[in-house]
Design goal:
The complex is a heterodimer of chains A (143) and B (213).
Chain A (H helix, E strand, L loop, with lengths): L8 E5 L4 E5 L8 E3 H8 L2 E3 L2 E4 L2 E3 L9 E2 L2 E3 H7 L4 E4 L4 E4 L3 H9 L7 E3 L5 E3 L7 E7 L3
Chain B lengths: L2 H7 L4 E7 L5 H10 L5 E4 L4 H5 L7 E5 L5 E7 L8 H21 L9 H6 L6 H18 L3 H14 L4 H11 L7 H12 L17
Parallel strand pairs in B: 1-2
Antiparallel strand pairs in B: 3-4
Helix pairs in contact in B: 6-7, 7-8
Classes of the chains: A alpha+beta (143), B mainly alpha (213).
């Protein structure tokens, strides 16, 4: 199957978003602006390191830089933090996943993780829309 | 599935939010939702995001969330049973619904609401493999959507391999191969194998009146 993505861009997916970004000269590395990294993953670069809500992790050190000219090497960063990351080079697609420890921490806090999904009309709803009510969050499948 | 219970309890500050773990999207679920004439909130989750957030592995599973957005009963099977004993199946279901009624009526005073320590005890571990499995599933689903079926299969298979406890991943993958494929011979073989290893298809919720069943 041929990809429709032009040679000069790559697709970057996450749980939260799907973006098209310029392909880096080093096709084996994923470089993003800090803003795009935040949009995709919810993690932000701050002086303390990489932060999300109240949690911060210090930027891991290594031979090659993670930040250069205001851009982040997300692939290097995710690799050093041992976070789930996938690269389908043949299809020019990357996936940046969330850390298992972060998922576990969120659940252990017992704060119900928020999410936004469409109904069958395509209208978006968030779990947080229902604050003030007891919610039975119930899954099913047509299969 | 929940419409009758919802109609009974909706005036008591209760909402049902169903999430369809359906990678085929709206087309797959519109029929069942419309036929059930649901008046609660029915959402479509093509990438199984809610399964990742709540560490779910099968359907139907449910979570109880209180008015302040706190989990009072984490992910568990929502009272379903697979058994030739029909009375046991009906009784399990009835007890689960009664427990919900009790919670809606009594709030945190309900015996079915876990303390924070109990709730944490009932969480399943979220491992690095599970996180990577969800990443593979999501990428696989994206590629399938683009029509890149054989490339998609590679990642969907990875997801199943990395998260063998997830029936969602296995059955969804089979369903994406063929719309009627999720309950076929491969499924039966897998269920039988896991059953021999002591892994029940649906575990009972940890509730007082179900322990003696």
């Amino acid at each position: 199957m041929e990809s429709n993505t032009p040679e000069s861009t790559v697709q970057v997916l996450s749980t939260a978003a799907q973006l098209v970004v310029p392909r880096h000269a080093d096709a084996g590395a994923l470089w993003l602006s800090a803003a795009k990294l935040h949009e995709l993953t919810g993690w932000q670069l701050k002086p303390e390191g990489l932060c999300k809500d109240d949690a911060c992790v210090p930027l891991p050190k290594g031979e090659e830089p993670i930040i250069e000219a205001g851009r982040v090497c997300a692939s290097r960063l995710w690799e050093r933090l041992e976070r789930p990351m996938l690269h389908d080079a043949a299809r020019s697609v990357w996936f940046l996943g969330e850390d298992a420890k972060e998922r576990a921490r969120q659940l252990a806090s017992l704060e119900a993780p928020d999410f936004t999904l469409p109904d069958i009309e395509g209208k978006l709803h968030s779990l947080s829309d229902f604050r003030g009510q007891k919610v039975l969050l119930a899954t099913w499948a047509s299969w | 599935m929940w419409q009758a219970l919802f109609e009974e309890l909706q005036d008591q500050g209760f909402m049902v939010v169903t999430v369809a773990m359906d990678s085929r999207g709206v087309d797959a679920v519109r029929g069942p939702i419309q036929r059930a004439k649901t008046t609660y909130t029915s959402l479509v989750d093509r990438d199984h995001v809610v399964a990742e957030l709540y560490n779910m592995v099968n359907v139907p599973q449910a979570v109880w969330i209180d008015e302040s957005g706190k989990i009072v009963r984490p992910t568990e099977v929502s009272g379903f049973q697979v058994s030739f004993n029909l009375r046991k199946v009906q009784r399990t279901r009835r007890h689960y619904l009664d427990a919900i009624r009790d919670w809606v009526e009594k709030g945190h005073e309900s015996e079915h609401v876990f303390s924070e320590a109990e709730a944490r005890d009932h969480l399943s571990p979220f491992t690095a493999e599970i996180a990577l499995a969800h990443a593979n599933f999501h990428l696989g689903r994206y590629l399938w959507e683009r029509g890149d079926r054989s490339e998609a299969a590679r990642f969907l298979c990875n997801a199943v391999e990395l998260h063998p406890d997830s029936w969602n991943f296995f059955r969804q993958m089979k369903n994406l191969e063929h719309i009627l494929g999720s309950g076929g011979p491969a499924f039966l073989l897998r269920a039988r194998r896991r059953s021999k290893q002591g892994q029940a298809y649906y575990e009972l919720p940890d509730m007082a009146m179900l322990r003696e069943s």
